[in-house]
Specification:
The chain folds into 2 domains: about 35 residues; about 100 residues, Nucleic acid-binding proteins (OB fold (Dihydrolipoamide Acetyltransferase, E2P)), CATH 2.40.50.140. Helices cover about 30% and strands about 30% of the residues. The chain is built from 3 helices and 7 strands. The chain has a 5-stranded mixed barrel. A hairpin with a 5-residue loop joins strand 3 and strand 4. It starts with a helix and ends in an 11-residue tail after the last helix. The relative contact order is 0.15. The C terminus is likely disordered.
Amino acid sequence: MTPKQKQRFILVSLLVVGLGTGIGLVLMALNENINLFFTPSQVVAGEVPPDQRFRIGGMVTQGSVEKLDGELTVLFKLNDSVKEVQLKYTGILPDLFREEQGIVAEGKLNKEGVFIADQVLAKHDENYMPPEVEHALKVSGGDYYDDEVKE
């Protein structure tokens, strides 16, 4: 191998290693930021990957909202009219949060099966339901689903 060929080989090798490292870092960052969506039925069925952040959506169960005294912690149940999941959220809830209202929460499932939310999003008016929640309720055959709900 001539010195010129050797130099070219080293340059191409470094370029390939650098490109591979860059692609690997991008894929790793994308994988960490994937935000999966699950319904309460899917969570109860165990379809959620362990130790993974995800979003859960459904309707707040009537009579399930419980505020802990002296704290900003709220316990409530979320359902898709088939199954329900207990949620725990510490913080100020959106103004539009109430029972029998569609919400989407983001967080992780703990070992006891309670979803620990770090963000709760409520719908913004009476005609809107998050698309994921609307689809999940339609698929589950939930009695909350209304064909006239428009995005």
